[in-house]
Amino acid sequence: MPTPAHSSCPPDLAIAGGGLAGGLVALALNQLRPELNILLIEAGDHFGGNHIWSFFESDIAPEHRWLVDPLISRQWDGYDVHFPEYRRSLHNGYCSIESKNLDKRLRTLLPANSLKTGIRVEHTENGMVLLADGTEIPAAAVLDVRGGGDLSALDTGWQKFCGQMLRLKAPHGLDRPIIMDATVEQIDGYRFVYCLPFSDTEIFVEDTYYADTADLDSAACHIRIAEYAADRGWEIDTVLSEEKGQLPVLHGGDFDAFWKANPGVDARAGARAALIQPITSYSLPMAVRTAIMIAAMPQIDQDSLDKKMRNLATEHWKNGKFYRMLCAMMFKAAQPEKRYRTLQHTYAKDEELIKRFYAGETTMLDKIALLSGTPPVPISKALPIMMKFR
Fold first, then answer.
1. Does pTM surpass 0.90?
2. Range list of H helices, the chain
3. CA–CA separation, 35 and 38 (whole Å)
């Protein structure tokens, strides 16, 4: 039988999942609603796991930067992209956050009894969180941010990656990130290398793929990272840390069926609600907006939170239709080794258009521009996809 958790004061909000989305909600509530008793529950030993999250300055409204600025490890005033047909420097600022910063800030600002690690949430329902050990935690409201869940109702490709923080024996010579270096050999779909210079001799290098499957050969990726470093004349002294991940790239499917396939409360955020950037699958910009939106609610009860989050997720899915069409073009219309052409085509456009593209604020004129010019995929395959998304 489930064991009730012994607490004289059930939390006003229990957050199931202490990754980026859940952690930001907790931090926003701590700042804007300090009177609330919250509980953040994470299956791992650390909040946020082992990740580096990044965002463009244009992704986050200036009035919301207070939430993420204390977490930033490094920021740059621009970035570069390398494609087979051209190289380009862009002037949109870029920022990176190491997950250890999220864990540290949560533990600094929130009381210890608001933080619970090392135990997995098994189930959520109105007024209660059930832990894997059978413990029931009552709560006035519950928010579910436990990751993507069952994606079988959605059409997905995958953005998968292995990254290593390298300490080099001599300076690497980069003063800004390389967000996409697609001049590398195209393997398993669209492949590019991503470089973040954290100091003169420390650089994060990630081997990334837009592939049909989530299968990831970490050993092969590590070899390719070493080869990339050698090709640039970088001599590796030490591998300081490693990370890997497989993010779904959503290009279709039945949103309502996805929602029903993941039982529990309707109050969901992050990947659990498909609140991700449709092209990159990054969750940070939407996680910031979601956290501040929840903290601004005049009353946080289960019914209000369910309605607010279901409406947000539904609206985000509707607004992502154009981006899902572009993803479908990449995965369904382009030959795997030619997928790079879709992003090469996009990065040839106006810089303000690219900012809006990543921020999910593409205008009608932007859409026309993105679909103009020499098509990056065969017209015979593109037209059926465009008709499907009409």
1. yes
2. 20-32, 65-68, 99-109, 218-231, 255-260, 284-295, 302-319, 321-328, 340-346, 351-359, 364-370, 379-388
3. 9
Per the CB < 8 A criterion, the answer to whether 80 and 178 are in contact is: yes
Q: What is the pLDDT of residues 24-45, one digit of tens each?
A: 999 999 999 999 999 999 999 9
Q: Which of 35, 40, 45 has its CA nearest to residue 17?
A: 40
**First CA to last CA distance, the chain:** 52
Cα gap 126→303, rounded to integer Å = 9
287 neighbors 270 (Cβ within 8 angstroms): yes
**Could you write out the three-class secondary structure of 328-349?**
HHHHHHCCHHHCHHHHHHHCCC
C-alpha span between 10 and 276 (Å, rounded): 31
Q: Is 134 helix (H, G, I), strand (E, B) or coil?
A: coil
**Strand 178-181 to 79-82 pairing:** parallel
pLDDT in tens, 233-282: 999 999 999 999 999 999 999 999 999 999 999 999 999 999 998 888 88
In the chain, where are the structural domains located?
A: 3-74+96-150+254-319, 154-250, 322-388
Closest CA to 14 of 262, 309, 301: 301
Is-contact 297 305, C-beta < 8 A? Answer: yes
CB 144 within 8 A of CB 268: yes
Question: Is the domain 154-250 a CATH 3.30.70.1990 member?
Answer: yes
53-103 tens-digit pLDDT: 999 999 999 999 999 999 999 999 999 999 999 999 999 999 999 999 999
On the question of a common fold for 3-74+96-150+254-319 and 154-250, the answer reads no
- Max CA separation in the chain (angstroms): 66
Tracing tokens 């640039």 back to the chain, one arrives at 232
Write down the residue that tokens 């993420």 correspond to.
68
The single residue listed with the structure tokens 């990056």 is: 376
CATH annotation of 3-74+96-150+254-319: 3.50.50.60
Given a contact cutoff of 8 angstroms between Cβ atoms, the answer to whether 147 and 17 are in contact is: yes
Cα–Cα distance, 239 to 164 (Å, whole number): 7
Question: What residues form DSSP beta bridges with 76?
Answer: 94
